[in-house]
Write a structure and sequence with these properties.
2 domains, RNA Polymerase Alpha Subunit, Chain A, domain 2, ribonucleoprotein, Rbsml_bL25/Gln-tRNA_synth_N, four-stranded mixed sheet, alpha+beta, Ribosomal Protein L25, Chain P, 20% helix
């Protein structure tokens, strides 16, 4: 289900006006992109603060109601106070149904405790990446991408090319190579103990 929230057009501009609005519990923001002009907006801070805690809010096509007119947007940026739990400004980008979008989507790892690397190999699974850059049409955007670790063996890694993507979704590569998503690693303590055991055996011989 699409996340919806409300906003109103913001008439007052400038830092002093923004400070006053924040004291009143309102959050300045902007909606930009597409053929329409950028629209400064005001939102309820508490509502957006709680929405930002939801993973789906960061990787979903959203519906914003601005004075009764709905627009389809993506969350693009949030500016936070240096030490207070307060959002200072928020940016949204308009999207169209037939235009490709580019977004970071969170990764959900499953079967990590059941893979051979952990169950019989005594390894731990390191999650090297926690999100993936993807591109797709708005209707194909997944809230998350599942990475199945069931077949992971000791010393092996899962790369981006091995991640099963939903239909209509492709990854966006930055640079060369095939980045590691997750890897099976032997804990340092186990490595040290194994080395000491081997040294002891050599000494006994």
């Amino acid at each position: 289900m699409q996340i919806e929230f409300k906003a109103v057009k913001r008439e007052l501009q400038g830092s002093s006006a923004s400070r006053r609005l924040r004291r009143e519990g309102q959050l300045p923001g902007i909606v930009y992109g597409g053929e329409a002009a950028a629209q400064p907006i005001l939102l309820d801070h508490n509502e957006l603060f709680h929405l930002l805690k939801k993973e789906a809010f960061h990787a979903s096509v959203l519906s914003i109601d601005i004075d009764g007119a709905k627009e389809t947007v993506l969350l693009r940026d949030t500016q936070w106070h240096a030490y207070k739990p307060q959002v200072m400004h928020i940016d949204f980008q308009r999207v169209k149904a037939g235009e490709t979008i580019h977004l970071k989507v969170p990764l959900h790892f499953i079967n990590g405790d059941e893979c051979p690397a952990v169950k019989t190999g005594g390894c731990i699974v390191a999650h090297v990446l926690t999100e993936l850059d993807v591109e797709c049409l708005p209707s194909n955007l997944p809230e998350f991408i599942t990475v199945d670790l069931a077949a992971l063996e000791p010393g092996e890694s899962i790369h981006v090319s091995q991640v099963v993507l939903p239909e209509g979704v492709s990854t966006v590569h930055h640079g060369e190579g095939d980045p590691v998503v997750a890897s099976a690693q032997t804990p340092r303590g186990s490595v040290s103990a194994q080395a000491e055991g081997e040294e002891g055996e050599e000494a006994a011989e």
